[in-house]
Design goal:
The structure holds two protein chains of two kinds. Chain A folds into two domains: about 230 residues, MetI-like fold, CATH 1.10.3720.10; about 50 residues, no CATH class. The radius of gyration of chain A is 31 Å and the shape is elongated. Chain A contains 15 helices and no strands. Chain A is mainly alpha-helical. Classes of the chains: A mainly alpha, B mainly alpha. At the A-B interface, helix 6, helix 7, helix 13, helix 14 and helix 15 of A face helix 1, helix 5, helix 6, helix 10 and helix 11 of B.
Chain lengths: ~350, ~300
């Protein structure tokens, strides 16, 4: 009687107020089958993607970003003008054509008009040209490309340093953690924007001779100083986040097991701890990109960002301020592009967070 | 509790002092890292003049001694003479510019907090209604706009297209647009903070109790809910000051406000090294002190916060 099988019911005490179980009808096997919940077991990633896909705003933002990324890669390949070419400067021996400068959208210079009159095909300047006779549309496309890549690379730098630092600090704990976190505290309380400006001023002066002749020269001191500044200052919040995650995960039994089996700290961090905070890492990287784009455009606006003739959305907006009376579209196009990119990245980042880390949902 | 709080206070103040010291040190050494010295760009300088200039600014002494002198000066809030503005002390220029900047920043910060709290609470009270949706869309959009973009767009819209405000920020009416451009981002951020913490608080049991007891709805909202929902906003006060200060660098430039930001930017362009150092340290101290204050206030306001 200790082990009653499910078909034999316990006898009801006549004095009990309990329901008489024998009056209940048993479920047939067909009915039992209906109760089985048949749902494919999904992986964490698939589940998150499904939730992300349901978030209409995030999906739209993802497509907007995809469109922009494809555009900045493809357009420079097929567009007949270059971002640095001053079209008005003619070949040796010919007079420069000043009518190339400051063209309005879809306008042609005298030289081009003559060509059109002669029956030649001339590709129109979709957004006109700037004060040096450079096609403005391609400059905006290039500026977007540069702003996006700065954002992406800066975030990757932050990701690598922050993850490394945070996981080491979190895993070892104790004195190591204490010292490493005090350093983070100090860097965290440095006013970042001011330090960015200061570093950019200095790097712009000092880096130029150091990188002369190398491939870095093409990148320009402004870009490198932005990356350096991100590598020096911006990783702290990522490090804090990762450390917090690691601190909770390392209490789990499987970490103890791994330790008992003799896994090295590096292996435990790499194989057991980091994969479990991957969603936090991805989400905060996604939210770091708009931050980096903000910083880059701010610096370029101050004249500390990318080096001429390379454009970035910030420097384009800054240059366009001089022409706000005559050609306001020159300001609006880069300004709105920054807003659209940052907005889409913010919303997509929020969507990713909701989809992959429901605990963090605000 | 009290002892714990004092310990926290001490630790936090110490961190702030160390940070300020670090800012001064970093600023000093990194500016000295620039090769050639500040007078390189002046073309027609003879050897003697250069030596005289270096002697005047104390640049002929060894680096360690210069550093100690600078540190001594910085404690007394004396950053030496400006290198490009003849005969003017950096401290005087900073104080002069800071007057307009402080006015601008304080009004912007105050209006961001007030409007942010009002709209944030409105959105929370009318959760998922039309007002909530509109407020959220607007605040999401503003969080995506850097202040210099807002400033240039406002300049175009309200100075050129509809000439309502003057483009020159040296008059009172001209300060409206700079204030708005500095205010929008923090306001949008505070709206989002207030809304989410307000939603959280409004769902708590004690709010239901208060309502069930028949407390007036406005009293429930202001006394019971808002008082508790405001704590996350306090933590944002420090970063907000930092944002407004750095935003003012470009906004003042765009609207020609004769403030600290404008001097800072022109000192970057002119390579006025002492001015750059002085302004950086001055602004950094403000930011660090504000961070300190908002951290301490947060702990005072919310006794539930763990101090360890």
């Amino acid at each position: 009687m200790k082990n009653p099988d499910t078909n034999s019911l316990p006898k009801k005490n006549p004095l009990s107020f309990q329901l008489d179980v024998s009056k209940w009808e048993k479920a047939s096997s067909a009915e039992k089958e209906q109760q089985i919940i048949e749902r494919e077991s999904v992986t964490f990633f698939k589940d998150g993607m499904r939730r992300l896909w349901k978030n209409k705003v995030a999906v739209v933002c993802a497509f907007v970003l995809l469109f922009i990324i494809v555009a900045v890669i493809v357009v420079p390949m097929i567009y007949p003008y270059n971002y640095a070419d001053q079209l008005g400067i003619a070949e040796v021996g010919q007079l420069p054509d000043a009518t190339y400068n400051n063209l309005g959208p879809m306008e042609y210079s005298n030289t081009e008009q003559a060509k059109i009159d002669a029956g030649e095909d001339v590709f129109p300047h979709l957004l006109g040209t700037d004060e040096l006779g450079r096609d403005y549309f391609i400059r905006v496309v290039y500026g977007t490309r540069i702003s996006l890549s700065v954002g992406l690379f800066a975030s990757i730098i932050v990701l690598i340093i922050g993850t490394l630092y945070g996981s080491i600090s979190g895993y070892f704990g104790g004195k190591v953690d204490l010292i490493m976190m005090r350093i983070v505290d100090i860097i965290y309380s440095l006013p970042d924007m001011l330090m960015v400006i200061l570093f950019s001023v200095v790097f712009k002066q000092t880096l130029a001779p150091a990188i002369e002749g190398t491939i870095l020269e093409k990148l320009g001191t402004g870009m490198i100083s932005i990356f350096l500044v991100f590598a020096l200052l911006y990783w702290v919040s990522m490090a804090r986040l990762i450390r917090g995650q690691i601190l909770t995960i390392k209490q789990q039994e499987y970490i103890l097991t791994a330790k008992a089996l003799g896994a090295s700290p590096a292996r435990i961090i790499r194989k057991h701890l980091l994969p479990n905070c991957i969603s936090v890492i991805v989400i905060s990287t996604a939210l770091q990109i708009p931050n980096a784009i903000f910083t880059e455009s701010f610096l370029s606006f101050l004249g500390l960002g990318v080096s001429i003739p390379m454009p970035s959305l910030g420097s384009l907006a800054s240059d366009a301020l001089n022409y706000i009376y005559s050609d306001v579209y020159r300001l609006l196009v880069p300004a709105l592009t920054i807003c659209v990119i940052v907005l889409s990245l913010n919303l997509l980042g929020d969507g990713l967070r909701d989809a992959f880390d429901p605990k963090q949902k605000k | 509790m009290d002892k714990k709080f004092l310990y926290y206070l001490l630790k936090r103040v110490l961190l702030a002092v160390v940070t300020i010291f670090l800012v001064v040190t970093i600023t000093f050494f990194i500016m000295n890292f620039i090769p050639g010295g500040p007078f390189m760009s002046e073309k027609s300088v003879t050897e003697e003049t250069l030596a005289a200039l270096n002697a005047k600014f104390g640049l002929d002494k060894p680096l360690g001694e210069q550093y100690l002198n600078y540190l001594k000066g910085a404690v007394k809030f004396d950053f030496g003479p400006s290198m490009k503005m003849d005969g003017r002390m950096v401290t005087d220029v900073i104080m002069e510019g800071f007057q307009s900047s402080a006015k601008l920043g304080l009004i912007a910060a105050a209006s961001a907090i007030v409007l942010g709290l009002v709209f944030g609470s409105l959105a929370a009270v009318f959760h998922n209604k039309l007002i909530d949706r509109i407020v959220m869309v607007i605040s999401t959009a503003f969080v995506a706009m850097p202040s210099f973009i807002v400033a240039t767009l406002l300049l175009w819209l309200f100075c050129l297209e509809l000439p309502v405000f003057p483009a020159n920020g040296s008059t009172a009416a001209g300060l409206v647009l700079p204030i708005i451009s500095l205010m929008l981002y923090p306001m949008a951020y505070i709206i989002r903070l207030t809304r989410s913490s307000m939603l959280d608080v409004l769902g708590q049991d004690y709010i239901r109790t208060a309502r069930a007891k028949g407390v007036a709805p406005s009293k429930v909202l202001f006394k019971h809910a808002l008082k508790n929902a405001v704590t996350p906003v306090i933590t944002y006060a420090g970063p907000m000051v930092a944002f407004i200060l750095t935003g003012s660098l470009v906004v003042e430039q765009i609207f020609a406000v004769p403030g600290l930001g404008k001097y800072f930017v022109s000192s970057i362009i002119n390579r006025d090294y002492t001015m750059i150092m002085g302004t950086t340290i001055f602004l950094a101290v403000i930011v660090i002190v504000m961070m300190l204050l908002s951290d301490i206030l947060y702990k005072l306001f919310d006794p539930r916060v763990d101090l360890s």
